[in-house]
Amino acid sequence: MIIILLFLIADISLLVLSIYFVIKSKWLFLILTIIGLYLFIKWTLLFLYNYSSWRRSNIFWKMVKKQPEEFYDVFKERDNIWQILESESAKMIFDKLEKNKDEWIGPFILHRPSTGKNIYIYGKDGLYQEEQDKIIRAINKHNK
Length: 144
Hints:
single chain, alpha+beta, three-stranded antiparallel β-sheet, elongated
């Protein structure tokens, strides 16, 4: 976050310098500065979006680890969004057949205390992120 702030300060100072050079008739510097500022803002917004998405996902999986059995049931109910594999061999087969289609993200590994085994969870790309956000909002609403 500090690095982004430093880049923003640098771009603002370049903008100030470009205004000075415009006064001195150096239009090329102004155009290059505006392009640089545009690219910086675009990259910053992209980074912030990805960071917030990653952070929400991290929060979600921490909640899942605290209540694995309850979330296991949620995952089983929503089999159009979540794919649960209960063995290493099933995971290997799924990885070879389905995951290559780029529609499943994972595996997310979850330990189930009731069975004492790890399960492998895959989320359908685009849908599981929305599902995570819905669950986080519902839990936060319930806790308030």
